[in-house]
Structure formats: C-alpha cells, structure tokens
Amino acid sequence: MAENCSHDCSSCSADCSSREKPDLKKKPHAMSDIKRVIAVVSGKGGVGKSMTCALLAASSQAKGYVTAVMDADITGPSIPRMFGVHERARGDELGIYPVVSDGGVQLMSMNLLLENEDDPVIWRGSLISGTVQQFWTDVIWSGVDYMFVDMPPGTGDVPLTLFQSIPLDGIIVVTTPQDLVGMIVSKAVNMATMMNIPILGIVENMSYLTCPDCGRKINVFGESVAEAVALEHNIPLVAKIPIDQSLTAAADGGRIEAEDTTNYLTDFFDQIDKLVNKK
Ligand code: ADP
Questions:
Q1: pLDDT in tens, 46-80
Q2: Closest to 238 in 3D by CA, of 228, 248, 246, 227
C-alpha cells in the first residue's frame, strides 16, 4: 500500500497489491434476463466446439430450461446452420431480438445479421470483440435459464476480452484425443484459471468410432488419455463423444435439436447442471 494511502485508487498511480481491479464486465441489455452463462471453448478450431455447444443447448432446452446460444465465433459462425435457422434477426429502437429455433432455443450469431450468410467476416480482433459484446449488451434475451456461448477458438485477444467482459458461470473445454496429449488443453485451462472462471468440465470429442458391423469401439486417434488429463487438472471429464456420421448430417441439415444422442450423451447436460449449481 502507498504511503499516506487515501484509499481512493482513482486519484493514485501506485501499483500496490490492494489496488482495486477495474471491473470490465459489461451489463446485459436492461430488458434481458439471463440466469446462467456457460462458455464452450477449445484450444483450436475444428475440434467440435460448436457441435458440443449445440448439443448442450439442445439437451438443456429438451430438459425444459429456457435456453439460448450466443455464437461468439464471429469468423466461423456455424450455430444457426446447425439449428436450421437462416432468417435475419430483427431489431427496433429497443434492441435486437434473437432468432428462435423450431425447438425454442434463442440464437444470436453474426450469420443472422449478414445480408448473405455466406459472406465472410474479415475483421480485426477489436471489431470482433466489440460485436460479441453487443450480442450481450444490445440483444434482448428473454427469461433465459441457460445461455451457452460458442467462443472463438484459441486463447487469443478475442476470447480474452470476452472472458473479461461477459460474466461467465463456467466454461467447458472441448478437445480431441490428439490435443489432449499436447499443451492445448493446459493453455485453455490456465487462461480460465487466471481469469478466475470455474472450469466445469472437459469434453473429449471424436473420442472413438463404433464399427457399424461388429459394434467394436475403434480409437481412431489412439488410446484416449482424457481420464488422465482430467485427473491432472482436477477437472471432471463430462463426456466422450464418438465420431458419428449422423451428428455431421444433423449439424449440416439443421436438425441438431432432433438428434438422438441418448446412447452416449444421456446425462451430459444433467452433469453440467449439477456442476453449475454446486458452485
Ligand atoms: P469447431 O467449432 O471446434 O470449429 P465444429 O463443431 O464446427 O468445430 O465441427 C467441425 C466439423 O466436424 C463439423 O462439420 C461438424 O459437423 C463435425 N463434427 C464435430 N464433431 C463431430 C462428431 N463427434 N462426429 C461427427 N462429426 C463431427
């Protein structure tokens, strides 16, 4: 603490340990009501982060929770397509309204704002973070029990800004067996720990393939090390999702809400629900 401390950090430049950290959290839209916010993150793209986010949202909605997905993966937005939503979001003088899927999930994504959903978004990081923050501050989310945020991949500028500005109740880390071996998971875990955000669990996607003829499980990417990594970081392993052609077809065909995953994801959302409420 500085000598003669007046306890007024705003008029003092000393970098002492008791200095109050600035709260960078943004307030949601005044008309929004959002109870829980869970971010789905990955160390890199293409591991099934959006797929996991969509499956979680679909099962949360199916459990009777009012559910929303904020697609923060601005340069690779795939959430609306997975839910079969292609119309543009509406807005008025009050704010922007999410588009609601057939199953009732409230969605906001860059793709719902573009003139043409195939248009690429070639923006710098600051513009991207600003837009995602607006999904939080300018969109009117109604009575949401669970919001899932499909984060941009990696641990760069944009995810960092979002970690700081959106009040998250926890994160889910999605990986594939290969990435579990490397440092990718550790990086995502370390970032969340540094930001003081609870890590609810690890999901190993593309964990195995079930042979359609004999039913044997094939470890396409080698033996799973998910349990060992989860143990090392003291984080629950909440799901092992197989490579499943019907998942790809459901995601591409906009039918993710109708996908029957009961044989391998029966209690996936229930586990998250418990972990969130245990906090
Ligand atoms: P990310 O969000 O990490 O970039 P996606 O969720 O978009 O990755 O997945 C990348 C591609 O892999 C998509 O075409 C998706 O449909 C497919 N995919 C993801 N997980 C699985 C899975 N378990 N089985 C089959 N296809 C999958």
A1: 899 999 999 999 999 999 999 999 999 987 889 99
A2: 227
